[in-house]
Amino acid sequence: MTNDKSDSASARATDERQADALIPHLSFDICHLSLSDEVAAILADADADIAARKPLCRASGNCCKFEQHGHRLYVTAAELIHFAHTHAPAIENQKLKIENTHRLSLPQFFAQPAPTGCPYQVDNLCTAREARPLGCRIYFCDANAQSWQNDIYEKYHRRLRELHDRFAIPYRYLEWRAALRELLPENSAVT
């Protein structure tokens, strides 16, 4: 006879250990490329659903100023894998400061005494727009968007979560900057 609670706790601990190793050791094999394609399709569906609602964006950049506006962005492991795959050139060149954009590489961003906001926001615009997570796509300051944002987020988050099972990837739901830290090279001096 087994104890469901201890079996469940043991399974969670195993999943957490596997999940901890998920992002730092990414190799973009065919499975991850297929996963990235599926995430892109879900995000495209979400974009179409959102566009049909015609939310107003004033390019204020408030969506990326997390601390200033009292919100946080969370991403799934599948979204992070997609982001890493789609945004790989910028991640591979992290040690270089990108010229003419005032953007910091991830190590530079995290080396700041108190990094705030999103490292991909430059002059109130997103420099990682194609790969941005679902939460970025859904959030609008537009008061009219408040009535549908949660329902749309849940609809597409459910589909993203299902991908974890289909691709046998441990489900993780991480704060955006904590997730981005996992994309840093292991030998990075960022703490």
Please characterize this protein's 3D structure:
- The protein is mainly alpha-helical and 191 residues long.
- It has helices at 4-22, 30-53, 66-69, 77-86, 88-92, 106-111, 134-138, 149-166, 176-181, and strands at residues 74-76, 121-122, 125-126, 173-175.
- The strands form two sheets. The chain has a two-stranded antiparallel ribbon. A two-stranded antiparallel sheet has the order 2-3.
- A hairpin with a 2-residue loop joins β2 (121-122) and β3 (125-126).
- α2 crosses α4 and α2 (30-53) packs antiparallel against α8 (149-166).
- The longest helix is centred in the N-terminal third of the chain and has 24 residues, at 30-53.
- The model is unreliable at 1-22 and 91-102 (pLDDT under 50).
Topology overview:
Elements: H1 4-22, H2 30-53, H3 66-69, E1 74-76, H4 77-86, H5 88-92, H6 106-111, E2 121-122, E3 125-126, H7 134-138, H8 149-166, E4 173-175, H9 176-181
Antiparallel strand pairs: 1-4, 2-3
Helix pairs in contact: 2-4, 2-8
Overall mean pLDDT: 74
Report low-confidence residues grouped into runs of 5 or more: 1-22, 91-102
Give the termini distance in whole angstroms.
45 Å
What's the multimeric state?
Answer: single chain
Written as H for each helix and E for each strand, in order along the chain, the element string is HHHEHHHEEHHEH
Shape: globular
Number of distinct beta strands: 4
Major beta sheet, specifics? 2 strands, antiparallel
Count of runs of 4 or more consecutive helical residues: 9
Strand order across the largest sheet: 1-4
